[in-house]
Amino acid sequence: MPAKVNLQLSVGPLRDDGYHDLVNVFHAVSLFDEVTAAESDRLSIRVVGDPAGQVPLDESNLAIRAARALAARAGRSYGAELVIRKSIPVAGGMAGGSADAAAALVACDRLWGLGLSREDLSDIAADLGSDVPFALLGGTAVGTGRGEMLTPLPVSGTFHWVFALADAGLSTPAVYRECDRLREAAGERAGWPALSEPLAHALRDGDPKSLGRALVNDLQPASIMLRRSLARTLDEGREQGALGALVSGSGPTCAFLAESAEHALDLSVSLRRVCHQVVSAYGPVPGAVVV
Fold it and tell me: Which pLDDT value is given to residue 65?
C-alpha cells in the first residue's frame, strides 16, 4: 500500500462535527508499507523496519482497528497476526497509518475468505479515517467532504518526487487548530473550497512544470508556524531547482516535484546536505493490493 502526497489541500470552514470541508487532491507515490496477515486465534500486531519503535501496538493502531471493523462487518470473531513492514514515514503527513489500515482490510478480507467488494471495504475505510479510502483506491483522486468522498482524476505520464523527512512528527489536530487560529487572527473567513483547474489540467496533460506552479496546501502556514525549520527546507528545495515545493498534508514531510527521474536524483543529493532524511519516489501508483 502506497504513501500519498497532497497536491492540493484546500480547507473550508469548521463544521459542526469538528471537521473541515476539504478539497484534497491525493496522489499515491511509490513508497510502500507491507502488511502480512497470518492465521491466529486472536488479533495481534507486530511492526518491523527502521521506524518500528514509533508505531503504536495498541488499539490506537489503525491496522488493528481496521481488522476489528472488518470482523464486526462480517458479524463474527476472527483472529489474525498482522505484521507491518514500514517504509512510509511515521507521522510524516504521508498517510502511513491509513495505508496500513487499507492493507489490513485487504489482507484480512483475503485471509478470512470474506470476499467483500471494494465498495464494501471503502465503506469500512471511511469510518476509520479520511485518508483510508484513498489508500485503497490509489492513483490520483480528489477527495471532498472530510476527504473520504473520492473521484479519480485523469493523469498522463509519471511525476517524480523527492521527500525531505523530519526527525519528529506534527499533530494533525494541532495543525488544523493552528490554521483556524491564523485565519481568525488575520480576519480571514474560509470560503467553500474547489478543485484547482490549473492543477487538474496539469495532471491531465502530464505537465510537471505547470503542476509545480499549481501545488497548494492551506495547512502549510500552520505547519510552518509550529515547525519553523520547514520554511528553510522548502526554500532549499526551491533554490536547488524543484519545480514545486510544499508541505505534504499536515506535515512535517516536505515534497518537491522534479522534472525527471534524473532531476530527482540530483535534487535528492542536494537536499541531503540540509535534511534529516531524503527519499525519492514516483506517482501515481495503485492502491492496496494483495501480492
Answer: 95
Question: Could you tell me the CATH number of the domain that includes residue 82?
Answer: 3.30.230.10
Which residues are annotated as part of the binding site?
89-99
235 is a catalytic site residue = no
The active-site residue out of 4, 33, 86, 109 is: 4
Examine the residue annotation and report whether 21 is marked as an active-site residue of this protein: no
Q: Is the residue at 85 inside a domain?
A: yes
277 is written with which cell numbers?
532524511
Of 120, 152, 184, the last residue of a domain is 152
Count of other CB atoms within 10 angstroms of residue 158: 14
What pLDDT digit, counting tens, does each position of 2-16 carry?
A: 999 999 999 998 888
| 2-14 sheet: strands from edge to edge | 149-152, 140-144, 20-32, 2-14, 216-217
Task: Specify binding-site residues for ATP.
Answer: 89-99
In a domain, 290, yes or no: no
Q: Is-cis flag, bond preceding 152, omega within 30?
A: no
**pLDDT given at position 112:** 95
Same domain, 146 and 193: no
Q: Which of 33, 109, 131, 218 is catalytic?
A: 131
Sorted by sequence, the CB contacts under 8 Å of residue 254 that are 6+ apart come out as 163, 164, 230, 233, 234, 237, 245, 246, 247, 248
Which residues touch 60 (CB under 8 Å, ≥6 apart)? none
The pTM assigned to this predicted structure is 0.91
